[in-house]
């Protein structure tokens, strides 16, 4: 009895599919909105997102000063600090922002 009652074909099937699709779309929108509200509330509380920042190496300031005086290149600084030039650039930017 139930199998025959729920067997959908043609127009009934398409209509049921459209209703389910609409419900799924509304749920996605609600989830996205709740997520955005949660992120906003967390940021207002001061929660930091992403990976933690790497600390400066002990000899960073010494090498930074050489770099600023154009004695050594950015890549050479990174090599001396055992890191890559991108990380060194990030450290320089962060250090200069902190100094201001």
TrEMBL record:
Highest taxon of the lineage:
Bacteria
| GO molecular function (one) | DNA binding
- Segments forming domain Resolvase/invertase-type recombinase catalytic: 1-46
InterPro entries registered for this protein in UniProt = Resolv_N, Resolvase-like_N_sf
What's this protein's name?
Recombinase family protein
Task: Tell me what organism the protein belongs to.
Answer: Thomasclavelia ramosa
């Amino acid at each position: 009895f139930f199998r025959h009652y729920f067997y959908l074909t043609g127009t009934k099937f398409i209509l049921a599919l459209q209703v389910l699709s609409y419900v799924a779309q509304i749920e996605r929108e609600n989830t996205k909105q709740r997520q955005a509200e949660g992120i906003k509330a967390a940021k207002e509380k001061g929660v930091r997102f992403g990976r933690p920042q790497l600390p400066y190496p002990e000899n960073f300031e010494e090498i930074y000063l050489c770099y600023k005086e154009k004695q050594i290149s950015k890549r050479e600084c990174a090599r001396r600090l055992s890191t890559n030039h991108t990380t060194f650039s990030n450290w320089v930017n962060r250090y200069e922002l902190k100094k201001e």
